[in-house]
Amino acid sequence: MFNIATHMDFEGQGRAEKLSRVIITLFGAVGLIWGYIIQQFSQTVYILIAGVLLASILTIPPWPIYRRKPLNWQKPRPEPQVTAGGTETESAKKKKK
């Protein structure tokens, strides 16, 4: 019914991982500083959780930004032809060589 892409390419995976690390580190640092200023560790945890949620929303789904360079796979090789007696045909033997 729907044609929804469910994959990322390798460069997209790297981009998503780097983005999630930056977001979580930034929110963690801001949360730590804010929590220290107001002397509430719970605020640090809340800000960090907000960063994890934001990073999850931005990096877990396969957004189009993570699918810019798909892999070009090789075409599969044809199967060798086997006769009824269980031996390969001459054309299949030539292709193996």
Automatic annotation (TrEMBL):
It is found in: Endoplasmic reticulum membrane. It comes from the Eukaryota. It is a multi-pass membrane protein. One of its GO terms (biological process) is protein targeting to ER. Its main location: endoplasmic reticulum. Residues 75-97 are annotated as: Disordered. The chain crosses the membrane at residues 21-39, 45-66. Keywords: Endoplasmic reticulum, Membrane, Transmembrane, Transmembrane helix. GO terms for cellular component: signal peptidase complex. The keyword Transmembrane applies. Belongs to the SPCS1 family. Component of the signal peptidase complex (SPC) which catalyzes the cleavage of N-terminal signal sequences from nascent proteins as they are translocated into the lumen of the endoplasmic reticulum. Dispensable for SPC enzymatic activity. This is Signal peptidase complex subunit 1. It comes from Aedes albopictus (Asian tiger mosquito). The lineage of its organism: Eukaryota, Metazoa, Ecdysozoa, Arthropoda, Hexapoda.
